[in-house]
Amino acid sequence: MFGNKIQSVWIEQSEIPNYYQHPICHICKRRMMVKRSKSLSPEPSSSSESKRPKIVEDGQTNGRMAHPNMLDLSDDVLLNIMKYLNPQDLMSLSSCCQRLDQVTQDRTLWANVDFRSRSMLLHELEKYVKFLQPLTTSLAIRGNQDPEKFTGLSQSFFNAIKVVCNQLKELIIEDYCIDGNKIQITDFPTMIEKLSLKGSMMCHLQSNKSYFFKIDVHMPNLTCLILSNCQWFTPHSLLVISKIPKLKELRLDSCHRLGECVAYASLATRFGFKTLEILDLRDTALGDSEICCFSSTKTLTHLYLECPPILRNAESAEQQQQQQQQQQERLQRQAAQRPVFEDRNLVQFLVEDEFLWENFERCLISDRAICALGSYVCDRRVQNSIEDVVVIEEDRRIFNNPHLRTLVVRHYPRVTNHSLVHLALNASSLEYLDVTGTAVTKDGVQMFKSQKTNVKVVSSFDET
């Protein structure tokens, strides 16, 4: 009586109430199943177009297999799936059909774009420019350092980024080659706040001018600059970078050309780096004089220092054993001859300066640089002068690096317990300290921990 308006459904035996468990009801059930089997057709009926077919648990329907189709999912579900895919997979998915091509170009999928899952050549990179959106805020790419396959970035790529991504805040370019004659720092997007050139190569650089010339004017909003493993970076660029008005994070780790540069470091820290908070100088050849210059940076909160492996292993094993033996002998003699005194319940271990300078050809970081961090500067001015009497105002102590929270000093043999004593007394904001591979002793570390209970200390004496 209901005709074709009856909608076919599966009725399991367990779902039928007890009062329907009757022979007549079983006959009706068989008739409904026959009608349902006759109504199956390749084309969907008009009454069932708006509803999705129900998939049977056993996966079979009268001898036919029911396979779910990805296109049966809604756009919202597809977007939730696609947000876990990398841009390369999204581009491959867009080539399947027109609907997937439309979904993959949704602006929410291209807000933060990271192509670093695999290296990309220039001709591949240009294919992805069409997917970038005006709301793209982060773009990361990685090249190939193989000389046979290495391809530099082009001017057209930077022009496309500046035109399409007008709200770009973060640009990460790793392991690419940049031609200094074709691409200047002024060709980069001007609105970015984070720039990374990690592992990039530079060719045809001008010898009389830094590559970062006028970066402070071109990128006034830049807060983070990462130049890790940039072998082309030279010390004179420090002075140019220090002029960036909002720079908070500077990473120069593994820049092996960054060595003795007291003049540039002194000028840069005296007149620039007014907002610098994070400074990474690991795996560089900087010494005491350069690090002491950064002690005047009042805003510094994180400082990372680590001796390069090539300098760390420069001495032979025999020389190292001799130095360790000499150090133990000197410590024993001084313990017997000099009194060990306490300052605020922290034992001070005295180390002779002349021993620290033996057998070292290159000036590495020592206690002198560490003790400059957190120290104070006396500022006493002449108020009046009457004949032979000079009136000087009271001593005003200005502490350096008052906000220093993280300090990493690794594998420097000249850093001793004297640095621990100084940091315990003067680094009031310190929260994390790493002195792995230095000449500090286990007793010195324990005494530091007892004095600074709120500081997490990492050393060579930690139990593994």
TrEMBL record:
Q: Write down the SMART domains for this protein, in alphabetical order.
A: FBOX (SM00256), LRR_CC (SM00367)
Q: Name one GO biological process term.
A: SCF-dependent proteasomal ubiquitin-dependent protein catabolic process
Q: Name one Pfam family in it.
A: F-box-like
Tell me the ranges covered by the F-box domain, including all copies: 67-113
Record's keyword annotation contains Cell division: no
* Keywords linked to the UniProt accession: Ubl conjugation pathway
In residue numbers, the region (Disordered) covers 38-67
What Gene Ontology cellular-component terms does the record carry?
SCF ubiquitin ligase complex
Q: Where is the composition biased (Low complexity)?
A: 39-48
Q: Which InterPro entries match?
A: F-box-like_dom_sf, F-box_dom, Leu-rich_rpt_Cys-con_subtyp, LRR_dom_sf
Q: What is this protein called?
A: Uncharacterized protein LOC107273547 isoform X1
